[in-house]
Amino acid sequence: MRTALVLLFLLALAALPGALLPQRSLNQQLVDQYFTDYPRLAPWLDKLGFFDVFAAPWFAAIYLLLMISLIGCLLPRTIEYARGMRAAPVATPRNLSRLPHHAEATVDMPAEEFLDRVRTRLGARRRFGWRTAEATEASGARTISAERGYLRETGNLVFHLSLVGLLIGFAAGKLYGYEGQVIVLTGGGQFCNSSILGYDSFRPGLRVDGTQLEPFCVKVNDFEADYLPNGQPLSYKSDIGYQSAADLAAGRTTWTPYPLSVNHPLRLDGSRVYLLGHGYAPRFTVTWPDGQQRTGEIQWKPVDQGTLLSEGATKFERPGVADDEQRRTSQLAVTGLFAPTSSGGKVVTSVFPELRDPEVAVDVLRGDLGLDDGRGQSIFTIDQSKVDSGELKRVARANLRPGESVRLDDGTTVRFDDVIPWVSLQVSHDPGEDAVLVFAILILLGLGLSLSIKRRRFWVRVTPGTGPDGAGRTVVEIGGLARTDQAGYGEEFHRLRADLVESPPKDT
Questions:
Q1: Does residue 444 lie in a domain region?
Q2: Range of the structural domain that residue 64 is part of
């Protein structure tokens, strides 16, 4: 147990860097910023695994050693407890007067009758009474040894065994669980849990490669948000439909409706789908001089959570252009700010998060967006280096309300059509969550048993005697001992003494 306590202290100490330093699993940008701020210290910390503490080999070694130590402590204790459960109570001590609780008395009844009274009072014939054992000493005195409170040790073992189970459940979740976020447009937008490619961000467990996810699909039909007058959100609700793995396997095309809201996730095929937040996706239609049109809507990122003022970039490629160079240099990007409830001024800003009076301030850029470079880029921004190099040039700027448009120098028009809300969903899969819940409850139950139940012992020695008139008289000696330091056994001992001995004896 000493080793387990030392390892537990080391585990807590080893977890401190995970709380004090940025972690790659949580925020890679903060890690990059730390490298910028501390260029000499950061590489050394990185070599030691301090930016990914909970996946570091040395942290796993401490965790594993703690598990082995706990199991090594609990197995002998469990075996010893099993033997103790079958063992008889401890024999009556020779000198009961040395015990913390002791009393002597002489009663006017035969020894056997008094012993029957003791058996009845201790509940020896009841299932949850005192556990008793009787013996006859060489002097002829009869004794009863009694003990209760065995469930205290049971609670102690349940607590520690459940702690091991809890750690195993956490480990299973970290190994085989995953968590991903995805943004889905309302009005029929769909998401399927088929691979990691369907997610905007994905954090797999150590044993998850994303190729064997349990398939299910979600379709977002509508979204509704309620706000207080100051703009604080009161509730988020989304009307969704889903198809489980069984539905997909059977080829069913119907969607099961579900009212998704914050803190009321959809539980489906071992996963949970949470509603995290929402935003807006402005819809633009670009009409080129030859009459061809393209309509695009993509989520814009909120920059002010209080008013949902958003920024983004909706990108287009001109259709029907065969020449690669011409196609690359004729790409369009509609960037800017979107206000769901515009203030109405020259500078577009939002005064309320609900979609009441939408307006967008756009910069239209034409040129090479870098879509063919083979490098990933953010859907919310354009490549600023393209602007700096002159490969992207601003060709128009305007404030637009739904239905309004702006004309470019070559006759191309960009129309702001309307706005589509989007919702942010999080899918969490944790195969160890049921085990964690069960063992957490068992930990509380075990702790409650170990703290509330008192282990105590009680002995009775009965010596037959004869009074002056020949009537049966019996010398009774009782003693008690608490196995723990908890208070309260003194009162119980006095109640036992009052019930067993007719006349109050002298307590020594």
A1: no
A2: 2-83
